[in-house]
Write a structure and sequence with these properties.
The complex is a heterotrimer.
Chain A lengths: L15 H13 L9 E7 L5 H9 L3 E5 L6 E9 L2 E7 L11 H12 L4 E7 L3 H14 L3 E6 L1 H6 L3 E2 L1 H8 L3 E3 L8 H13 L14 H17 L6 H9 L3 H8 L11 H11 L1
Helix pairs in contact in A: 1-11, 8-9
Chain B lengths: L2 H6 L4 H14 L5 H20 E2 L8 H10 L5 H46 L3 H39 L1 H15 L6 H10 L1 H7 L6 H10 L9 H12 L5 H32 L11 E3 L7 H36 L1 E2 L2 E2 H15 L4 H9 L7 H13 L17 H10 L4 H12 L5 H11 L2 H29 L1
Antiparallel strand pairs in B: 3-4
Helix pairs in contact in B: 5-6, 6-13, 8-9, 9-19, 10-12, 10-20, 11-12, 11-18, 14-15, 15-16, 18-20, 19-20
Chain C lengths: L1 H17 L5 H29 L6 H8 L3 H13 L3 E4 L2 E4 L1 H24 L4 H11 L5 H10 L25 E2 L8 E7 L4 H9 L7 E7 L4 E5 L2 E5 L1 H4 L2 E5 L12 E2 L8 E7 L5 H9 L7 E7 L6 E5 L2 E5 L1 H4 L2 E4 L7
Antiparallel strand pairs in C: 1-2, 3-8, 4-5, 4-8, 5-6, 6-7, 9-14, 10-11, 10-14, 11-12, 12-13
The chains are: A alpha/beta, B mainly alpha, C alpha+beta.
Chain lengths: 278, 481, 340
């Protein structure tokens, strides 16, 4: 990548020490922030045309390889928009983020620990319901996302139309219809990514509220507890859910302060960050 | 890594939360994962329902459906598969000859003499010139010339079929067969890839998400006869087996015998898969799921671009990395001598008794040892060594210099003078199918499995089978002749 | 010359026998020590299980459970008393604190290992207990904790038994034996006793698992006939005794007798998914759920492979192929089907 004039680390994030911690996490996940203002993750089900979108966003400025220490292919590339440089990381195509498989674990860990500035979720307009499963899971973890409804042309061919405004209202994040094969919708996707990354658009992501009664009480109790301790955690409910499920990664992350967002407080977090940065 | 630090602090909020979670977990009955997925899908369905408007009349994706009905039908499913894949291999094999010739003409006939001249001009000693040009350069050039064209044709074709969505249907059609062998239908896709290149085939097993079936696919991929071995098969078949029948049948019989060897490889895949799934791999996790994505018109240029980049160049680069030392070893072994004989001859004499026992000879075995980096150089190495050991001066270009013979008659004559019989030819074809994978593939298997144990099994199992099969064939042969 | 070889032979033999750690004596000692450890821990397990179920542990009971002679059992128990694991109060066997802790740990290790085998390996069900019986003696508490974390701190093992956490009491066996279940009442299998192994193997071979709904409709001294997972089962009472069940509300059993499974769905038919049976577990279960095989989903048979298996189903807008053995694990209802 022929980038000159490198920007300071993590120029886009609010607090210095947090961005250091995040940069360390990103580095572990194989992303260096040297030349980039923002990191964008690209998520989506298998077979929704993720590579097409990836290619049309990055052009030939990409390289492929493996995830660090894993035999799962990854691609990353970059693009410039409105004077800012964005790094795009292609996550493995998954149906879910509940870490049933290695792919899902990688995608989940990247969104959770890499804390991308924007997560672009690609969905197939002809199979919206199934694809929303992943979108909703992503929105549980991060509150900075853009949904791109791909293949609207194909949906129209089958006589289906997707009301992107209704969808955007329900999901609380920008929803962009696109036909990536023909390059349609790509400029709008870039604009939406930029808006979310710079904070011009504030997402109010849809969150689950209809858990079955069997778990609701336990979940609520734990969420209250977590919110007391970490008032700024963007995904307390999801963390609570994973803790109840006994998720080892989330356990460990809570212990050493890898969870959280800008302005996460608590001695544990601060110390860990400085420890990391050395 | 920082857990100690965190623990050392006062009762950290994290520990308190973890304890609460631990306590609450005990009170939950049922499967949490299930509750969660159900809740998410319920919301997804509600939101999708509000956002999507469907036509009153059900306009179904009928085109997809019709294609699916045909390509998975009892009547047409298998014939369509057979025609498509035969066509693909035919295009690969016949189409690769021409560019192979160009590259070989450029790299070997034109650039090689130039390199020799310039080495002389600079004043390199003979041994340095030999090692660099005749050894390392020639071996690398050879591998590029033989390997690049078929892969540059095969991989894009494969990627286009993959892009279109046809390959999952093949897995769907063949799954029943693979299931009986304890494997996954998607193994058909990695196998197919293996016919192009085993190393790429091993990487292709990533699409199999069930750990047990993926290991089976990796361990048996070598039984798919790869591009590097097709030339050996064709050459030996036409020189020795085609010549057994009248000339007008020769081409057909030779082709049939090569197909037979490839089919034998497929049979070995199923048998070994079955054995592995019932022995060493019994305890590995196994799940099955296969998505049949909608058909999409393939994007030709992108398929060519990505397959060249991700598959062809990737595999070629690895092969070159291993070819450089191999070229050096081949040249040195033919040119360094101990007690008046070259090292190669010492080794050939050493391996000869074993080779003869299994119906081959020392030259072939030594060629397979030095040709571990790439099967493509087996035949040139055998020819060079045969010239070296028989002391024939009519052919060859000097010790340690790989070469090829265009005329079948001359080739047959040379090999006969090296003591070859029909048995040698048959067993060479068998051994070419059943021996250790090339070093690129071995390295890839290690990368993919991360285990020395599985790598060792993948390497030694086919080798042991090769010895056993060729020994048996030789024993039976000698009983009847 | 002969002397030299004799000396070499003699010293080799001596080394073979006497070498610390590798020698025969050391190995024999080690295996003796291990056998003793296993026996002590098995005895503790037996005593704890008797205690929590309100039964009195006895010396003969220990001998029976461990399959050793009663003299040997007496020797073992007095050794355990010396070690402070148990006490004889007025001739009654009682666990002391250290003994209780150890017994709990062993049970925890056993159940965790069974969960591990069920969830993360493909080892067949009939072997779980046997493998866990060995592993339980080899695991340290730290290792058990680590395994528990890796498994997501499971609460129950695959037989339906609660996995005790550190410092917690063992729960008493819940439920009643299938033998004593009332006729024609809907019950749920809570637990299947994994000892003796042959009985357990027979039960798991016919597909009886915890979480299944059952209904007994005939009882006689020779046999018990009951309905479970869409088919009729007949067991001898001695086998049925190992199955403990708890009652379910009447409403939970309405569809018990005409349960339908995805494997029975014909091409062109559609249905609604009711859920996954309990036989579907671990990675397989999670994968199916993630693919959208959740209760309430409409499903339709799209096409069958030329070989007759697998079958492609249209579920939530996507074609997913499943093998017949998986389709058997998915409960459906054709009557409640809505057109897709």
């Amino acid at each position: 990548m022929s980038e000159t004039n490198p920007m300071p680390n993590g120029a886009g994030t609010a607090c210095g020490s947090c961005s250091l911690n995040r940069a360390a996490n990103l580095k572990r996940l194989g992303v260096t922030m040297d030349d980039w203002d923002y990191v964008v993750a690209l998520a989506g089900n298998p077979n929704v045309g993720k590579s097409t979108v990836f290619n049309s966003l990055t052009g030939l400025r990409q390289h492929t390889g493996n995830w660090p220490g894993k035999t799962v292919s990854r691609a990353e590339g970059g693009f410039e928009f409105a004077g800012k440089r964005f790094k795009l990381v292609d996550l493995p195509g998954t149906y879910s983020l509940l870490s049933t498989s290695l792919d899902e674990e990688i995608a989940r860990d990247f969104i959770l620990f890499g804390r991308p500035d924007v997560t672009l979720v690609l969905v197939d307009a002809t199979r919206l319901e199934r694809n929303l499963n992943l979108v909703l899971q992503v929105l549980e973890i991060t509150d900075r996302a853009v949904v791109c409804v791909n293949m609207v042309d194909e949906a129209r061919r089958h006589g289906m139309t997707v009301d992107d405004r209704q969808l955007a209202r329900d999901l609380g994040v920008p929803v962009i219809p696109a036909a990536a094969r023909f390059g349609r919708g790509i400029p709008e996707v870039l604009q939406a990514i930029s808006d979310v990354a710079t904070g011009k658009f504030e997402c109010r992501p849809h969150r689950l509220h209809n858990e079955p009664p069997a778990i609701r009480r336990s979940l609520n109790e734990l969420v209250t507890r977590i919110q007391d301790m970490y008032p700024d955690l963007p995904n307390a409910r999801w963390v609570a859910m994973r803790l109840l499920a006994g998720d080892d990664h989330v356990h460990a992350a809570l212990r050493n302060g890898d969870l959280g967002s800008a302005g996460m407080h608590g001695a544990t977090g601060g110390r860990t960050e400085s420890g990391r940065a050395v | 890594m920082n857990a100690d630090q965190a623990d050392a602090g006062a009762e950290s909020p994290a520990e308190d939360i973890l304890r609460t979670a631990q306590r609450l977990r005990q009170g939950i009955t049922g499967d949490l994962h299930e509750y969660w997925v159900e809740a998410i899908y319920a919301d997804a369905a509600r939101i999708a329902d509000r956002a999507v408007s469907r036509p009153e009349k059900k306009a179904r994706p009928t085109w997809d459906r019709t294609i699916d009905r045909i390509v998975t039908s009892r009547l047409w499913g298998f014939p369509i598969m057979a025609v498509l894949f035969t066509g693909m291999f035919w295009i690969t094999i016949s189409g690769a000859n021409i560019p192979s010739g160009w590259i070989s003409n450029l790299l070997i006939d034109r650039i090689c003499p130039l390199l020799r001249q310039s080495a002389d001009a600079v004043g390199f000693p003979w041994w340095l010139k030999g090692l660099l040009v005749d050894g390392i350069y020639l071996c690398t050039a050879w591998i590029i010339a033989v390997m690049l064209p078929p892969m540059a044709i095969f991989f894009p074709l494969f990627t286009i079929l993959e892009d279109y969505g046809y390959l999952p249907r093949v897995a769907f059609n063949l799954d029943n067969l693979f299931r009986k062998a304890g494997a996954h239908g998607k193994q058909s896709m990695s196998m197919m890839m293996g016919f192009g290149c085993n190393s790429a085939g091993v990487v292709a097993t990533r699409i199999i998400d069930s750990p047990r079936e993926r290991l089976i696919a990796i361990l048996t991929n070598n039984f798919a006869l790869c591009n590097g071995r097709w030339p050996t098969q064709f050459l030996i078949a036409s020189v020795f087996i085609g010549s057994l029948v009248p000339a007008y049948l020769a081409g057909f019989v030779a082709a049939a015998s090569v197909t037979g060897i490839a089919m034998l490889g497929v049979a070995a895949t199923f048998v070994i898969s079955w054995l592995l799934s019932r022995s060493v791999l019994k305890g590995e996790v196994s799940t099955f799921s296969l998505e049949l994505p909608p058909y999409r018109p393939p994007r030709i240029w992108q398929a060519i671009y990505t397959s060249l980049l991700d598959r062809t160049l990737f595999v070629l680069w690895r092969a070159i990395v291993f070819a450089v030392p191999a070229g050096a070893v081949i040249w040195l072994s033919a040119n360094l001598s101990i007690g008046g004989q070259s090292i190669a001859e010492h080794f050939v004499n050493l391996l000869n008794p074993i080779g003869l026992l299994i119906g081959l000879n020392g030259v072939i075995l030594f060629a397979y040892v030095v040709a571990i980096p790439a099967n493509e150089i087996v035949i040139p190495t055998i020819l060079m060594l045969t010239v070296l050991t028989t002391g024939s001066t009519a052919m060859g270009q000097g010790a340690g210099v790989l070469f090829e013979i265009q005329s079948e008659g001359a080739l047959r004559e040379l090999l006969h003078s090296g003591g070859w019989t029909l048995l040698t030819a048959v067993n060479l074809m068998l051994f070419s199918l059943l021996h250790n994978p090339c070093s690129t593939t071995i390295y890839t298997i290690y990368r993919e499995t991360g285990s020395a144990r599985w790598t060792a099994i993948a390497t030694l199992l086919p080798l042991a089978m090769g010895f056993a099969v060729t020994f048996t064939v030789a024993a039976i042969w000698r009983m009847f002749t | 010359m002969e002397n030299v070889s004799l000396v070499i032979l003699a010293s080799l033999t001596a080394a073979l026998v006497l070498l610390p750690k590798w020698g025969l004596i050391a190995r024999w000692r080690e295996s003796r020590r291990m056998t003793e450890k296993c026996r002590r821990e098995d005895a503790l397990k037996y005593i704890l299980k008797r205690e929590v179920n309100g039964q009195t542990p006895t010396l003969n009971g220990v001998a029976g459970a461990l399959e050793i002679h009663s003299n040997k059992a007496a020797e073992l128990l007095s050794e355990m008393e010396r070690r402070g694991l148990i006490s004889f109060d007025c001739g009654q066997l009682r666990l002391r604190h250290a003994g209780r802790e150890l017994a709990l740990h062993v049970i925890r290790a056993h159940r965790l290992w069974e969960s591990y085998l069920a969830d993360q390996t493909g080892v067949e069900e009939a072997k779980w207990h046997h493998l866990a019986e060995r592993k339980e003696h080899l695991m340290t508490p730290d290792e058990a904790e680590e395994l528990s974390a890796r498994l997501g701190h499971p609460v129950r093992d695959p037989h339906g038994d609660a996995i005790p956490t550190v410092g917690e009491e063992l729960a008493a066996d819940a439920g009643q034996s299938l033998n004593s279940a009332p006729l024609n009442a809907v019950m749920q299998i809570e637990h299947i006793e994994d000892e003796p192994e042959t009985v357990y193997a027979q039960l798991s071979a016919v597909g009886i698992r915890p979480g299944m709904r059952v209904c007994v409709f005939e009882k006689s001294p020779e046999r018990i006939r009951f309905w479970a997972d869409g088919q009729e089962h007949v067991l001898a009472p001695i086998l049925a005794h190992n199955i403990s069940v708890i009652p379910l509300p009447e409403s939970a059993g309405q569809d018990l007798f005409d349960e339908e499974f995805l494997a029975g769905l014909k091409p062109g038919q559609n249905a609604r998914i009711l859920g996954l049976t309990t036989a579907c577990r671990g990675a397989e279960r999670r994968r199916l759920l993630d693919l959208g095989f959740v209760p309430g989903t409409s499903i339709e048979v799209e096409m069958v492979s030329p070989g007759g298996d697998p079958t492609a189903y249209r579920v939530r807008g996507t074609l997913i192929a499943l093998r017949r053995e998986q389709a058997r694990l998915i409960r459906i209802s054709t009557s409640e089907a809505q057109p897709l």
